[in-house]
Each structure stands twice: as C-alpha cells, then as structure tokens.
Amino acid sequence: MAETRTSRILVVDDEGSVLMTYRMILERQGYDVTACRTSRDAISAIEKNSFDLVLCDYSLEEQHTGFEVIAAARKRDSAVPAALLTGYATMDTADEASLQNIGIMFKPIEIEEFLATTSKLLRRENEPKQENGEKARRTKTGD
Amino acid sequence: MATAEIRFQPQRVNGRQKTQQRRPAALRLLQAERSEEIFPLLLEEVIALGYPRAMVLDINFDTGDVTPAAALKWPRQQIPNFAAALWMSEHPLITVLHTARPAVLAKTPLHSRPIYVHPILYSNRNLCWEADRVRSVSCLAVQNFNREKRIRLEDQVCSTCEMRSYAAVVVVELTRNNSEARLAELGELIELANRYLSRLFKVEHYYNRMRDMEVTIAQMGTVMQSMADPVILTDTQHRVIMQNKAAERFFKVPDEMTEGLVRAVELNNLLFSAALSSMLVSGSDAHRDLTLVDAIEGEEMLFEAVSAPTYGPEGIQIGTVTVMRDVTDLRRADQELRLNYDKLSGAEEVVRQDRDRLNLIIENVGDPIVVCDSQARIVLVDPLAQELFGSSLDVARDAQQIKNQNALATYVTAFTYSVAEKETAPLRLYNTTQKQEIEYDARSGKIFNERGQVSYTVTVLRDLTALRRVEQLRVERRMLEIEKFAATGRLAATLAHEVNNPMEAIKNAIYLMAGSLPENTQPVYNILKSETERVARIVRQMLGLYRNTEQVKPVNVNTLVEDTLLLLTRQLQRANVEVITDLRPLPDAIIAADQIRQVLSNIVINARDAMPSGGKLRIRTRHIPGRDDLHGWVRIIIADSGTGIPQEMMRTIFEPFVTTKGEKGTGLGLWIVKGIIQNHAGKLVVRSRVDHGTVFKIDLPVVKL
Q: Measured between CA atoms, how close is A14 to chain B, in angstroms?
C-alpha cells in the first residue's frame, strides 16, 4: 500500500546551479525533491517535513558542513539514509562519515552512479522498516 | 872330470857319501830348490874340481858393499881380506867386476896365491813376464844374458819389471896346474851354477811378487769391504764382477727372499745398468743421481754414482768401477734449501709487488695519510699530509701545523688506547690551501705486532666539505622537487576544486538537455558532452590524489597486481598485449590498496598505449630484504616492449599535464603515480629506451604493524 508514495529527498548544496541540476535530475526520476542552499534552510525544512534520503554537500555556507544537516535529519529520524557529495574529503571526514553510516559521493559524479547510489540508499531505507512495521506508521503520518 | 871325481874320493869318504859314485855337477846343482842352496853347492863342486879354496862375494847394490857370502876351505882369518866396496875402483876384485869377465889374478894384495875371479850377474835367456806382456825386449835379464852391451853395475835394475838384479864374484884359489882347459872347465861350472841361480832367482822373484800381490789384494779387499759406500766392478756388459758389502744391499738377492725384495734388487740392477749405459755414452768420469731401494730396509735412497773405466793390458776398457755416494740427506737438504729459497724469493717478490702497489695506492688516494707509532708520534706522512702536519723529520715551524699536530695527537692517542680496531671520527684541522679550519673525516686502523699490541696506527683524512656540499646540493634539489611537486599539487587541487562545482552544474545541465534538442544540434551536444566528460576526468584525477579517504592496512601487493590485470584483461587482449607475470611470495605491505591499484592501472594502461601494435608486458614482484632492521621493500617491476620514452621527455613525464597521447590523455597518470608512491614513502625509477620499451620499478617499504 505504501509503494504508491513517492520518496522524499532533501538535496543541499551552496552552489545554486549545481543544486538546481540535482533537483531537476532527481525530479525527472519521479522523486519528491526539496532543495536548500544553506544549512539553515535545510534544517528548517527538516523540522517541517520528514525525508527518506538526505543528499548534502560537505562544505556549505560559511564554516557549516553537511554533517550538521544530516545530524538534524537523524535527530528527527535516526535511521534516515544520507550521503555527502564532495569534491575533496580528508581522511578524518571519510572516517567520520563511515562511522555515522553516511555515504560519500565524489564530485564530479557520473550521473548513472548518482542515480544508482540514490536508489540503493532509498531501498536500504525501506527494507528494515517493512520488517518492524515502523515504515507503515511513518508513511501514514507523513502522508 | 872323472879324474877330479876320483881325486876327491878320499875327501868324500869323510863326508856323507862313502860308497855312492859322485853325481855330475849339473844334476847336483839341479837338486837345489832355493837360490841360497846354489852357492854352497857351487863351492863344493869347485873344490871337487881340485881347487884348494873357493869363495863367493855378494854385491849389495844399495850400499855398494862387496862382502864374502860363502867360503869353502878358506881359512877364517883370511876371508875378511876380500871385503870391498864398489866405489874402490883400484881394488882388484872391483876392477874385474867392472869388466864383467872372469880373470886370473896372479898376484894380489888379497891373497898369497894366484886367484881366479869370476863375476856373475842375474841373466836369463827369456824375457821376464812383464816384458813379455808389453812386448818389450828391454829386459835386464836377457840383456845380461846376451851381454849385448857393457854391463854397468850401477844400472842393475830392470827397466820393465823393476826387478833388482843380483851380482856376485866367485873367487877360487888356483893351483899350479891352471891350464886353459881347467880354467874353462871352472868357468863353465860357475856359469852353469849362475844359470840355475838365475832361474831360481826368477822363480823366487815371482813367488815373492805373488805373495806380495796376495797381500795387496787382501788389503784392497779389506779397504773395499770397509767402505760404507757401495763399490761395484762391472764388465763391459755391465755384469757385476765384484762388489762390496755395501753394494750387496742393493744388488744381491738376499738370503731371505721375498718377492718384494727380489723385485727391488732387479729394479736396482736395471736402474744401475741403465745409469752405467748413459754414463758410458756421456763421458769417462761421469756421475749420475740414482735412486735405489735398500733390499734390507726397504727404504728408497738417493745415490750419486761416480764411474771410472778400468783398462786391460792392451789399454782396452774391460770394465767399470762405480762408487756410489749416499746423497739422500744431502739432496733432501739441498732440495729443501732450494725450495726455501724459491719460497723466499717468491715471498720477496710478493712483498715487493705489495709495496709497489701500496705506494701506488697511497700516491693516488688523494687524501692525506698519516702513520703514527704506538706513542701517537708521526712516523710517516704522504705529501698531502705533509702540508697539514709538516714533515715527520723536521720540526714543524708553522703554528697551524703545530696546532694540527696536537689535534691529531689527541685523536690518535684516544684511538690507540681504545678497544676499537677501526674508527671514523670528525677531526677539525687547518687547511693551508683553503686557509681555514675544515672538518676532516678521519678513518683510522691499527697495525698490531706479534704480541697483539698496537705498533702503528694509520689514519686517512678525508676532506668532507666538498662531499658535504654535493650532498647538501642533492638534498636541496630533492627538497625543491618535492616542494615543487607539492605546490603544483596544491595549485592543481585548488584549481580542480574551483572548477569542480561549475563543471558539475554544466555536466548535469547537459544531461538534462538530452532528448529535448532539435535534431541538427545533436553533434554539438555530443561535443559538449564528451569534452565535459574529459574535463570531469581531469578534475577527478587531480582531486583523487588528494582524497586520502582510504584506510591503510596490510595488503599483499600480488593480489593488487592480479586484481588490476583482471580488470584490464579484455583491454589488453584487444590491444594484442601478452601479459607475463612472475609474482614471488611477498610480505604484506601497509598501503592504501585503492591508491596502489590506481598506480598499477595507470602504468599498465600507459604500457598498453605504448604498444599500439601489441607486445609483451612483464610484471614481476620481489621481496628485497632490508639491510638493517627494516623489513625491506616490496618491489614491483612493470616492463613493456613499447615505443619507449624519448630522452628529452624523461625529465618531465612526472609533471602534470604532460602527455604523449594527445587528447586521449589527461597528462596526470604518472603525476598521480608519483604522488601516491611518495605518499607511501616509496621509490620510483623509470628506465626507457626508444623502440625497446620502458621499465617502471616501484619499491614500497614493508612496515610491520
């Protein structure tokens, strides 16, 4: 019954043009996409809505990072899948990401890879929830 | 004669033979067996002829004395009157003797009555044995017999046999009837007696000689036997005629026969015979070294054989006398001496060569060399060291040299009393050429005496300033290179980062444009797409180098090689590249596997591109054990048989954006390879020959966790 609902994806990137193309690509795939340019916008969007996936640029405006946005999303839904989109990552960043079960996609990202990773992360988000029935509950409330 | 016999009959009645007829004088004389018996018989026969008295005087050629030897019927007191000497030329008897003919002396001061004087001499019709042997006729006996020449009393020794003749004078007192016939009868009797006497004399002479020879032979035999050296007399056929006891040891089959001994003796005889033959050929007084086996002791002995020929009466060689001297010890000593001499001269040659070589080395070392004794006093300096310390013989006058000497003495003293056999230490000395104090690298060694005490120390001083300068330059250049590389990397990374986002947007936009474009714009779209992808590749590679996202962990490099080849198999096959691997067991290396995979794939792809018409790609891995406490290195060698890298490009291949592949390449492959290897503290070496191929050698440190 839940399969009819489109997945909600939050995309965050401080570069407007990049953000726009990501949103258009994902929308063309039929996802419900919310696009934010700053961490502040993103966090307020998270407060308003729940998302099935968070794709977030690592370096955001000023000294903010994608980790803050993901942390906010996980505060609301601790199991929400997330991935960092970045051109450059230090060892610490990579370690931190893997520790928090956050995927990394390196820019420039092949579009095929981008789409494959996105759908994979969404599947991961769906599968465990079907088992414990939480997905059904949340689907209803989120609808 | 018959009358005489009758006349003397009454006298004989008083003698031994009363009834028997008196036998003729010749037969009576023949009865004599010894020469001494002749004179008494003669005197008896003279008296029997009717003469009143007769006497024989013997002549001693040695003393010249003429003394009465036998007398018959002569009054004892008258006999000494006749004694004379050969030198008394006026003496009636001597006068007659010199004539060598019988004479009648009617009146002499010797006797009151007339006397008949008859000299007799050793004479013989036949030649003596010696003269006969040598076929000479100069035999005294024959000469006397023939009375060929005037007999000289002072010359009565045979020139051939050296036999001394005898001479005597028979004196007979005459009666009144001294007719010619009677005197002739008397003379014949005396001559007959002399003939018998001569024969007996000759026989006795040879008898005596034989006896003497017997003695001589016995003596010689004793001498020969008592000689410790083997003496052998052989005939012309080299058959042994005579040998002494010492020789028998070697050449006579012993009583206790064993096969070995018999063979030894046979061999000795053979060797000896061969030696004789060769000596005979080479000359008369030849000598040869001869090794013989002692048949009794079984020992080998070395002899020096000296041979001399022996000659028969006709002067023909009848044999050889060989005396052998035992030179075993002598030769051994000689050989040892020679060997020692050779050894010594060899050693001397070696020492000389060593010294020459050493001098050559010292002259060419180009560094100052100082030899000090156990008290750290300078004993020897080479010309370069002389500049630093002054000559060892002179007293250094230069203040700097004195200072240098003190510095050296301090250092050498410490080294001499240290336990170290070798030492390398810095030593600051004033260099007169550079006019400043510089640091030398002093390398010292000890020379010990036979008691193990230090007798000398040798110190080579190396001016390190030049070396240091070169080393520093090299380090600086390397630092600069690394810095340059890092700076380039940083710049590239910044650039890439800045380009990254706009390019991401462009790329995404192009993707979104697909399918919504008019047909005729499709080629333009394609260009846009492929070129954007190229830019994206460049940026990705550049940023990839700085994406230190991967955890390093122990990895077997062989697995990475196999993974990489597996991924590229189809590409390589398509390019007709034959892959030959030789992967030896390796320890795990602590590396970032993805990065090393990137390195391998970059190099392999380059190799494939370098072989447009196919070729061979060889990949080898080896563990190179560390020399110190390190765990060594993992070595990866990737060699292709491709076009090679031109010499002028070798310096720039690791710089970014350098490519030989035109638009196909990013020019970043090797730049990234170098960066990754440097990040791993590894080493990268490239060798290449145009038209032969390129070899990449990568060494990664094996670090144990």
A: 10
Show Cβ contacts of residue B410 under 8 Å, excluding neighbours closer than 6 positions. none
In a domain, A37, yes or no: yes
The verdict on residue A143 lying in a domain is no
Q: Which residue has the higher pLDDT, B615 or B259?
A: B615
Query: Would A11 be classed as within a structural domain?
Result: yes
Looking at chain B, which residues constitute the CATH 3.30.450.20 domain(s)? 227-326
Average pLDDT over residues A57-85: 87
Q: Is 3.30.300.130 the CATH classification of the domain at B227-326? A: no
Mean pLDDT along residues B433-458: 85
Q: With a cut of 50, say whether residue B6 has pLDDT above it.
A: no
Q: With an 8 Å Cβ cutoff, is A21 touching chain B? A: yes
Q: Residue B539: which of A20, A104, A108 has the nearest Cβ?
A: A108
Class of domain B2-122+166-210: alpha beta
Report the C-alpha gap between B591 and B556 in whole angstroms: 9
Rounded distance between C-alpha atoms, residue B490 and residue B496, angstroms: 10
Q: The complex's ipTM?
A: 0.79
Which residues, including other chains, have CB under 8 Å from residue A82's CB and lie 6 or more apart? Answer: A53, A54, A55, A56, A70, A73, A74, A102, A103, A121
Which domain, by its residues, includes A109? 2-138
Q: Do A108 and B512 touch (CB under 8 A)?
A: no
Domain count, chain A: 1
> Which residues, numbered 434 to 493 in chain B, qualify as contacts with chain A under a Cβ-Cβ cut-off of 8 Å?
493
Question: What local confidence, expressed as pLDDT, does residue B221 receive?
Answer: 85
Closest Cα partner for B243 from B190, B305, B290?
B305
Q: Which of B501, B511, B543 sits opposite A15 (nearest CB)?
A: B501
Q: Cα distance from B578 to chain A (closest Cα, Å)?
A: 32
pLDDT at residue B165 tops 50: yes
> What CATH number should be reported for the domain holding residue A37?
3.40.50.2300
State in words which class domain B548-701 has: alpha beta
Q: pLDDT digits over B538-595, tens only?
A: 787 777 655 555 567 788 899 889 888 888 888 888 889 999 999 999 888 888 787 8
pLDDT of residue B326: 83
Q: What is the largest CA-CA distance in chain A?
A: 43
